[in-house]
Each structure stands twice: as structure tokens, then as C-alpha cells.
């Protein structure tokens, strides 16, 4: 029996309408999921950080507010016929927020720093398509072996290890953002503090309150600064979604990037077209600690997966703002085919209980020896509801579930640093529309992302072969076979695929839901 749906907005029947801003109020108050762990782009790993960094920094390429790739620090680029060599011509008027020119050497320094093992970048693997990037990151080659070179002050060359279909999209990612060398060398880890941070993007850091607002103001030296309608933006952490909706209704927040999904129908009634749903490239899953018995036993993982009612999670608890996931990769990725699926879509979860009991019995568990699972998650209204529902589904098998929850920063740091756990919630928003960006998470050695430390030689071999395969059809087949292994072994149990969901105040214009969930402040405006 599933738990009752909670009324997240109980007691808030008469929500006030969003108040119009005063003419003198030019601040865009932007809800942003969580307090970022860092503003160092090379140590960043979360979507909340990416939203802020997209405003602070211009990579060679960037996104517009419809998710299209557009020029960033580069005004033009070319790719060789063999797909190996790329050249970028930088904007001659590009400037750091201290007025210094942005040069090709700045990007050489940034790429080398990103891949320097001393940086301990969580996302280093993203840039491994660059020639010798993996060897540099492992400390096997010096930094100057990296396939990035300044051919002139405004011309940058990048050499790849092999053709990479999604390379241009990779260069929009926060790992490819530049940092100001003199500031890093002067301030060390403190270079991201207000007063120290020098950025080359549309905005610069004005203030940061720990656990509170991160305020940006227009970078006056940016070549397009005069065109930015919004001059100041405050990113507000909003982990308590129900409370954030109340703040939005009171006119204290202009946009929210997440909603209490079991109240979507009520929110639509209250706010009408201010509720905006859109596509997304994301996965919610349970990471299983494959280093630890009994979760190292595939039969246990399969039993846990079989009885999860994904349709109920997606439609019942999340109001149709998510879709049931039986695969790691969502439908519609570039350079792929229809993904394989794990067992469980056919029939109802109750139809799979007998098989799940059989698997648990084979693994040594039953009424006289119940399986106990510690379920860790980062605290939010939505995450708590899903956790309790899954615990109820497992209870029907006699499984005892204990819950451990922390804030998002602590949760993901714990997983990344190899903490001891049984099963943990994990979410992933793709950085580019390609199956590799989901499947690389489970490669051996990717300890920053592969929290369960799963390792499979056949999987790794298929991923390695796909990385060097130039024929896109054959590459898709190799990646399909790799995903099929992961869905059979279930080191990650897929739960749901994401859709974007937001509240957008009537006074905010220029927000367009898109697959990349890109909404740079520079392309939006506020009514006075």
C-alpha cells in the first residue's frame, strides 16, 4: 500500500498574487535549488553551480535562452574534415571584469589547470576527448602535452584524440570555462570570493552570503554589457520547495527552478501559465554500493529494482513532471537509438513480487532474515516523498528501510569521497545530448561520479571501443550493448527521467524551456 500523498501547500490556501516590482528595483531574484559547493568552474559538479557560472563566465561557446549553441569568448570556429583539429578565433573586444583582455593563453591555462591532477576536478573526464587529456589528468604526462595551444593572442587550437560528435557542446560546459590566472595564483582557493573573483562573462560577483544569496552585477567590461536588460541578479538557494513557493507567491522570488510536484495541478490552478514545464536530459536513480555485501550481489539489486512502481513515482507523486525510467539514457538522444531497458515495465510491480522474493531467497534473505537497507538522500520535499514511497514498496518484500538524509552539498560530497552507504539517491543532468554523457558515469576509475565503485571489464571495453569508433551507427551499437550490461547488473537502479518545471513571474521575460535547461540571465528582462 502506498503512502498518502502529502498536501504540500496545506495552510496556504489564500496565496497572494505576485507583486509587481518597484521601478527602482532592478534585481532579478532567482531561485536556484541549492547553495553551491564552489564557484570554481574546475571544481564544480552541480546544476545549481552551472546556472551561476553560466552568468559569470564565457566559455569559447555558450548557450542562448533556447538552448542553442552560440559564440561565447570565440567569435568564429572551424573543425577539420577528419574531426580531429579545431580552431577558435577569440573576440578582440573580450575583457575580464578587471578590464584585461581575454586571450588564447587564458584558455590554455584553464584547460591545463582543469586537467592537472592537483586540481582534483570532479568532472575531469568530460575533457578527455582532448588529446592526452587523460594522461595529463593521471599525471602520466606533463601539462604542456595537452592538445591545446595558443597560435596567436586571439587564436586557439584544440587537437582531439579521436573525432568526438559532441565536442562543441562539451565546450559550453563549466569544465571548459576560463579562470583568471593572476587571481588564482595570488589568492589560491580564495580566488572565488567577492573582491577576488575576476570573471570574463556577462556578470561579475558582487556579494555572497553563506547559505544565502549570491549576487551578481553586470560586468562593465563585457563587450555586450550595454545590451543586458537585467543589471543585477541574486541566486537564492531554494531546497525547501514548499517554502519557496510561498516566497514566490509573496513576490520575494521571480523564478523557481523546481516545484513541489505532487501539487502541480493546484499550482496550475493558482498560477496558470506561470507554471512552465519543458523537456530535460536528466536521470533520477538509486546508486547501489557494489563494494559492500549483500549489495555486491546482483540478485539483491535486481529484487530491489523489480518492485519499484516507477509509474506511480512519475505520475502519482510527481504529477507527470517526470517520466518512468527503465533505462539510464532517456529517449531522443543524439547519435543513439531507442535505449535498452531493465526488467519491470511489463505488468504491475505486484506481478514481479514472486520473482523478487525468489532472488532474495537465493541471496539468503527471507522472513527469518530480512534484508535491511540504508537509503541516503539529499533533503527536499520531493526527494523525501519518493524515498518514503520506495521504502513502502520494499516493505512488501519484508525489507526494512532506514533513511539518512543531509543537505545536497553534504550528500554529494559524501558519495564522491567514497563514503559508506547501501543505496543512495543520485540525480544526473546531461551536459550534452549524447549517450556517452550518461554511460561514462559507470566506467571504472570514474570515482567522482561512480559512487558505488562498480567495475565491469566488458562494459569498460565497449565504452573504450565506442570512444574510437568514427562510424556513428556502429558507435551507437557499442553504447547500446554497454547500457544493456549496466541494466542487467544494475549498479544504478533507474527511477525516473526528468522534465524541467519552473515558476516564472509575469514580470520576467525571455525564459524558454529547452532540452539543455539553459536560461542565461543576459537574455532575460524584467518589467519595471
Automatic annotation (TrEMBL):
Q: Which UniProt keywords apply?
A: Signal, Transport
The source's domain of life comes to: Bacteria
Family matches, as SUPFAM superfamilies: Periplasmic binding protein-like II (SSF53850)
Q: Could you tell me where this protein is found in the cell? A: Periplasm
Task: Please report the stretch or stretches of sequence annotated as the Solute-binding protein family domain.
Answer: 69-448
Pfam families on file: SBP_bac_5 (PF00496)
Record Gene3D superfamilies: Dipeptide-binding Protein, Domain 1 (3.90.76.10), Dipeptide-binding Protein, Domain 3 (3.10.105.10), Periplasmic binding protein-like II (3.40.190.10)
The keyword Transcription regulation appears for this protein = no
Kindly give the InterPro entries that the UniProt entry links to this protein.
Answer: Peptide/Ni-bd, SBP_5, SBP_5_dom
- Has UniProt tagged this entry with the keyword Transport? yes
Q: Which family does it belong to?
A: Belongs to the bacterial solute-binding protein 5 family.
What is the protein name for this chain?
Answer: ABC transporter substrate-binding protein
Amino acid at each position: 500500500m502506498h503512502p498518502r500523498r502529502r498536501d504540500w501547500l496545506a495552510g496556504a490556501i489564500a496565496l497572494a498574487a505576485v507583486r509587481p516590482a518597484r521601478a527602482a528595483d532592478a534585481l532579478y531574484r532567482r531561485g536556484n535549488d541549492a547553495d553551491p559547493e564552489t564557484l570554481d568552474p574546475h571544481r564544480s559538479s552541480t546544476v545549481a553551480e552551472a546556472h551561476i557560472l553560466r552568468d559569470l563566465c564565457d566559455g569559447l561557446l555558450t548557450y542562448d535562452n533556447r538552448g542553442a549553441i552560440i559564440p561565447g569568448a570565440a567569435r568564429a570556429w572551424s573543425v577539420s574534415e577528419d574531426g580531429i583539429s579545431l580552431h577558435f578565433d577569440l573576440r578582440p573586444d573580450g575583457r575580464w571584469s578587471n578590464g584585461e583582455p581575454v586571450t588564447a593563453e587564458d584558455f590554455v591555462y584553464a584547460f591545463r589547470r582543469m586537467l592537472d591532477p592537483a586540481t582534483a576536478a570532479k568532472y575531469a573526464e568530460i575533457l578527455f576527448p582532448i588529446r592526452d587529456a587523460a594522461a595529463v589528468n593521471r599525471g602520466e604526462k606533463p601539462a604542456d602535452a595537452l592538445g591545446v595551444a595558443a597560435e596567436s593572442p586571439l587564436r586557439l587550437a584544440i587537437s582531439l584524440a579521436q573525432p568526438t560528435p559532441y565536442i562543441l557542446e562539451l565546450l559550453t560546459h563549466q569544465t571548459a570555462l576560463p579562470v583568471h590566472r593572476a587571481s588564482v595564483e595570488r589568492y589560491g582557493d580564495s580566488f572565488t570570493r567577492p573582491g577576488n573573483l575576476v570573471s570574463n562573462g556577462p556578470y561579475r560577483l558582487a556579494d555572497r552570503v553563506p547559505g544565502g544569496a549570491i549576487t551578481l552585477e553586470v560586468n562593465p567590461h563585457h563587450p555586450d554589457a550595454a545590451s543586458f536588460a537585467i543589471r543585477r541578479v541574486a541566486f537564492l538557494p531554494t531546497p525547501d520547495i514548499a517554502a519557496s513557493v510561498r516566497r514566490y507567491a509573496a513576490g520575494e522570488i521571480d523564478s523557481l527552478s523546481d516545484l513541489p510536484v505532487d501539487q502541480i495541478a493546484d499550482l496550475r490552478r493558482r498560477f496558470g501559465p506561470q507554471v512552465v514545464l519543458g523537456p530535460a536530459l536528466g536521470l533520477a536513480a538509486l546508486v547501489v554500493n557494489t563494494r559492500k555485501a549483500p549489495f555486491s550481489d546482483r540478485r539483491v539489486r535486481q529484487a530491489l529494482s523489480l518492485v519499484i512502481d516507477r509509474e506511480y513515482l512519475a505520475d502519482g507523486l510527481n504529477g507527470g513532471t517526470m517520466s518512468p525510467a527503465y533505462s539510464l539514457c532517456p529517449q531522443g538522444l543524439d547519435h543513439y537509438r531507442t535505449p535498452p531497458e531493465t526488467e519491470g515495465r511489463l505488468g504491475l510491480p505486484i506481478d514481479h513480487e514472486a520473482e523478487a522474493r525468489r532472488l532474495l531467497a537465493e541471496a539468503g534473505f527471507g522472513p527469518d532474515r530480512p534484508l535491511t537497507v540504508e537509503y541516503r538522500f539529499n533533503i527536499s520535499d520531493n526527494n523525501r516523498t519518493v524515498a518514503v514511497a520506495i521504502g513502502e514498496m520494499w516493505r512488501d518484500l519484508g525489507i526494512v528501510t532506514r533513511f539518512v538524509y543531509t543537505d545536497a552539498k553534504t550528500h554529494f560530497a559524501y558519495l564522491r569521497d567514497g563514503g559508506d552507504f547501501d543505496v543512495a539517491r543520485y540525480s544526473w543532468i546531461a551536459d550534452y545530448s549524447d549517450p556517452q554523457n550518461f554511460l561514462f558515469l559507470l566506467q571504472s576509475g570514474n570515482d567522482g561520479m561512480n559512487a558505488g565503485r562498480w567495475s565491469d571489464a566488458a562494459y569498460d571495453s565497449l565504452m573504450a571501443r565506442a570512444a574510437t569508433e568514427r562510424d556513428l551507427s556502429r558507435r551507437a551499437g557499442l553504447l547500446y550493448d554497454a547500457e544493456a550490461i549496466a541494466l542487467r547488473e544494475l549498479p544504478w537502479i533507474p527511477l525516473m527521467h526528468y522534465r524541467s518545471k519552473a515558476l516564472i513571474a509575469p514580470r520576467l521575460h525571455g525564459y524558454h524551456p529547452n532540452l539543455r535547461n539553459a536560461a542565461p540571465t543576459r537574455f532575460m528582462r524584467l518589467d519595471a
